[in-house]
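Give me structure tokens for this 149-residue protein.
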Amino acid sequence: MSNVIEVVDGINVFADSLKEVTTGVLSNVIEYVQDANNFVVEQTPMLCNEIINFGLIKAGILMTVYFVTVVMCYFLGKKLINYMRAKEETIDWNSEDRSFFIFWGSVINYVGPLPFAIGLIIELINFAKIWFAPRLYILEYLTNLIDKM
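Here you go.
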């Protein structure tokens, strides 16, 4: 009978020590979660501000690149067409030189800037969205970020 009492006392001691250990671990976990929550609450406004600033800068840079490319394509195409017109007397109308300048001048002048103009319009819309609806932009940004995971 005394062996049973000793075993029960041992189980009670083990249960008390297990309760103390789990209480300590749970209190540490709760403290860690509260610290993480405080960190997230403190950092969220700064993170949102950085996302917005990055989006504005990225859209602004892309708009500038697209605009410069459209303008360069336009003037390069015009230059090729003007070169062909200036050499009109010396170029044989049935030669490959004339068709080369007409074709590539037209392509560079009218077709070349088209994808960049479309990119410019897309980035202009993106810039306006960031400027006028930053919360919508942040939600879309976070949705895209979660989709990539």
